[in-house]
Amino acid sequence: MSSKALIRVLPINVANKIAAGEVVDRPSSIVKELMENAIDASATQVDVEITAGGRKLVSVSDNGAGMNRDDAILSVERHATSKIHDVDDIERIATLGFRGEALAAIASVSRFRLVTCTKGEDAGTEVVITGGKIQDVRDFGAPVGTQIEVRDIFFNVPARRKFLRSYETEMSHVRDEFITQALAHCATGMSLKVDGRATYNLARKSTLADRLHDLFGSSYLKSLRDIGHSHAGVKVAGFASLPVATRSDRNEIYVFINGRPTSAPVVSNAIREGYRTLIPGDRFPSVFLFVEMDSSLVDVNVHPTKKEVRFRNPGDVRDAVIAAIRRALVAKDDPLLRPAGQGKDRPEPPQAAVTQLLIDNLPPTRVFNYPRIPQAPDGRIPPPAVPSATQKTSGTESAPQGMPGGTAPWSWCRVLGQIGKLYVLMETEDGLVLVDPHAAHERVLFEKYLGAIHKGRVDVQTLLIPETVELKPKDAIVVRKNQDLLKKMGFGISEFGADTFVVDALPSCFAGAAPSSILAEAAHNIEDAGSRGGKERSREEAIAQAACKAAVKARDRLNLDEIEKLVVELGKAEMPYTCPHGRPTVVFMSFSEINRKFGRE
Ligand code: ADP
Ligand code: MG
Q1: Over pLDDT 70: what percentage of the chain?
Q2: What does pTM read for this prediction?
């Protein structure tokens, strides 16, 4: 008696569900397959909509060729494709899809709806499938093109549903897939809507530069260099980031082989090699690399998701990519670009070429004269500082003799420029100094003003139009109490009934500042001073603080002359290191600190 047969052929929908796992593992892979189908159908516009990270809905509409009713029904069958006809076609694949698996796979693990219409047809077709079973096929009015809605992914495969990650994770995969497709097909208009909100809207007929601009913003492009190079039938184009703009992850390395997003290890290694010695080993560039070659020289049929490829001549691809990147980043006489065969020990790239490259690509700044400004009273300009690791760089040793009390923070300085539209960058004999010009200005004004008061010589400026200032009752009481002191300090102030005062003169160093903000702030400061506020000296300081703050606030941006005057005056201040409110005016980085950071000590 024969035993019961154990082997059975799986029902088609079970087989599809299992196979689906290879093609569809998360919402972003649906986005990929549907967008690629739209591109293969010659769409000029592809609109993507996502809800709940793609768990609820992934919808892709295109204005491509569409399908007639028979094709629409066939398209969701496994191994149904219009793109190849026999096995030889695999040798020269020009479309993105060819395996005829995606729609069948997607439809088998979701609630799937396809609406499509070809040119010249009276009516379009709607196909509704739930978990791989066709529910409904009917005529449906629709514009030429195809719309596919995929809802409730893995609703019938709990084992896979469990592997879906958080909203953020799925969403970031979806966004990355959209960006990848957008970069691969710049001529196609594309949009992405996330939970009903328009996230990207990318114009048709864009260049790669336009796309990068639309996706990442205008300043991003400035950190990139154009790539263009051909070698042994391999054409490489795109953009590569300058060595100054690196990342801690490889998320911005996009590689396209014959227009297909790809992660070929040969190419990744070549990119690494291209950047060797230009960026630290633990940093990654941003690269948008388009490699084109005869399609018979690439095998894209290595993996169901088509993300990997195999090259007939990997060496040529590698050489072309390395040369393309080096050419984009380093001057033409880079020894790495010379014909091979000069020994295995590759020389480092010439430092001067790299430096020039960096200089060429600095953002535009104002031109400074770089004068050395001596702080010492004898006006002697010291020799330039040499930031050698062996040099002793303690401030007291290098300060020239005869400095005023030895308190000046530097004996000379030169202003190099301004960064972040604010901080002043200077070189001094001890290293690099960053100055907060607002804080510095407050300090300088504060000392000048208090000095003048104590000498009884405050310059006063009459206002053309006296200003009426209304204060809060609490502040008004303080100001009223201190009216005599304010007058002594150069404020022309009189009461105008209730909580209102008239100011008709200001100390001239504060001309331009708003009397209302000086008085309100002064009242706060005096109150904050608490019991110390009883002392005239600390009330004076409280008023001076307020006036300096208002005066600096009212100032426009400083020009070079003003900056240089300011740093000289700051150097002469009694307390140059902080503003009257105690915030730092300067941040130092000594040469020894810099040497240490560069590992030269
Ligand atoms: P493949 O893309 O590998 O051929 P798919 O399962 O993704 O397999 O698609 C099956 C077929 O359905 C395609 O070959 C194509 O003929 C048709 N098709 C899919 N999507 C579209 C679309 N957006 N517009 C027109 N035809 C499509
Ligand atoms: Mg496809």
Answers
A1: 82
A2: 0.59
Ligand 1 neighbour 54 (Cβ under 6 A): no
Tell me the CA–centroid distance for residue 76 and ligand 1, in Å: 8
Whether ligand 1 lies within 6 angstroms of the CB of 109 is answered as no
Contact call for residues 519 and 485 (beta carbons, < 8 A): no
In this prediction, residue 338 carries a pLDDT of 40
124-162: per-residue pLDDT in tens? Answer: 999 999 999 999 999 999 999 999 999 999 999 888 888
| Residue 118 Cβ < 6 Å to ligand 1 | no
For residue 81, the CA-to-ligand 2 centroid distance in Å is 8
Q: Whose CA is nearest to atom 8 of ligand 1?
A: 100
For residue 395, the model assigns a pLDDT of: 37
Q: What is the pLDDT of residues 450-461, one digit of tens each?
A: 899 988 888 999
Nearest ligand 1 atom to alpha carbon 80: 10
pLDDT at 422: 85
Which ligand approaches the C-alpha of residue 39 most closely?
A: 1
Q: Which residues lie closer than 8 Å to 161 by C-beta, 6 or more apart? A: 153, 154, 155
Distance CA 251, CA 240 (A): 14
Q: What DSSP letter does each residue of 363-432 carry, written as one string?
A: PP--------EE-STT-PPPPPP---TTS---HHHHSPTT-STT--S-SEEEEEEEETTTEEEEEETTEE
DSSP structural state of residue 118? -
Q: Is the per-residue pLDDT at 388 higher than 70?
A: no
Q: Which residues contact 479 (CB under 8 A, 6 or more apart)?
A: 471, 486, 493, 501, 519, 522, 523
Ligand 1 atom nearest residue 81's Cα? 14
Contact call for residues 285 and 246 (beta carbons, < 8 A): yes
Tell me the angle at which helices 515-528 and 473-481 cross, rounded to the nearest 10 degrees.
Answer: 80
Q: What is the pLDDT of residues 72-115, one digit of tens each?
A: 999 998 777 776 777 776 666 667 776 778 999 999 999 999 99
The residue whose two tokens read 């196909």 is 127
Nearest ligand 1 atom to alpha carbon 106: 6
Please give the Cα distance from 73 to 139 (Å, whole number): 12
Atom of ligand 1 nearest to the CA of 98: 3
Confidence of residue 415 (pLDDT cuts 50, 70, 90): confident
Q: Which of 164, 182, 21, 27 is nearest to 101 (CA)?
A: 21
Indicate if ligand 1 lies below 6 Å from the C-beta of 65. yes
Q: Is residue 20 within 6 Å of ligand 1 at its C-beta?
A: no
